[in-house]
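ok so I'm stuck.
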Amino acid sequence: MLISRPRGTSDLLPHATAGWQRVEAVIRDLCRVYGYGEIRTPLFESTELFQRGVGEGTDIVEKEMYTFTDKGGRSLTLRPEGTAPATRAYLENGLHTAPQPVKLYYVGPMFRHDRPQAGRYRQFHQFGVEIFGAADPAADAEVIALAMHFFERLGIAGLELHLNSVGCPGCRAVLRAKLADHFGPRAGELCANCKSRLGKNPLRLLDCKEEQCRAAGREAPVPADYLCAECGGHFERVRRNLELLEVSFRLNPCLVRGLDYYTRTAFEILVPGRGAQDAVGGGGRYDGLVGAIGGPAVPGVGFALGLERTLLLVSKQAGGEEPPPDPVVFVATAGETEETATVLLARLRAVGVPADREYAGRSLKAQMKYAAKRGARWVVIVGEDELEAGEVTLRDMGAGLQVRVSLGEVVERLRS
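replied:
not stuck anymore, here's the structure
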């Protein structure tokens, strides 16, 4: 019986990874331009990191984490998100003693036991950035602008940026009490998740997608009603910086995000008309996270974007067509010419020309068919008759034309 991949995972084959590599190249170039350095953290961390960092009352910690006990009796968890691990690495490696701010980015797999659907997997990939040590609202605007610039570079249009402020712990304490007063008498109207959230984190009731919860929350208080003067001023400066950067946004008073560490700025990037699965990424400020996992009081802000959903958007923009393969040179052999073909192949690759050769013992006719299926732009035919004259045959597969070329010149010709 064939062993299948686990539910909620995918195999990325060469025709698909080419698209991923293009997206990753955009990420690395953008982060270089914006001044972010790459960080790579372990795929698993201490479970306590996510309990303290993400929040024990969140859906991620309560329902979605892949947690196991290792042979030493330690509780470990496959990372469900990237901010808490980046924060742990920032502290553990002494980056908090380096000149601030510290600007980091990451690209890699995350793991959540969720219901698989289009663009959502149990092993999925995120691109995220973090700025540690910057309380300035301009830092909030920078990470938002970087996220929108990323989608712009990929040619993805029509996205909406939703923006809100969830305030500081002082603001939220007042808001929680008001929300409990509002939703308490309406508890019977709420979905099962929101009934559970009511006693733990009533802010989460504001962004529930269930219709009965939306109806119960129509007159509910929102964070903007209870921002203190400092949080209100911070949010005003974030909006002003986005206007200066010409980043369009829409104020969403019910946006609170699903992680406990957010303070003040919160944002999401949405695909309009996609319902509950409309978010392609989001982020915000988390000024208490470094302290929550044992460090000093250091402000932070960042985002995470889902790459599977991003690739779906790229494919949709392209009409669902796979991008054409990179041009490649195929070296075909006829007769006893394998040694010359081997040397020629090495010379082509040495100067950066993508090239491959025959290894399966096919006839020349079969080799030409194989080269066409591979998408070869050129075929170099190394035959016995040509070699006696110090030449090879160069075939243009697109035009269907071929010429004899000196063996000593063919590499330079193909490179140019």
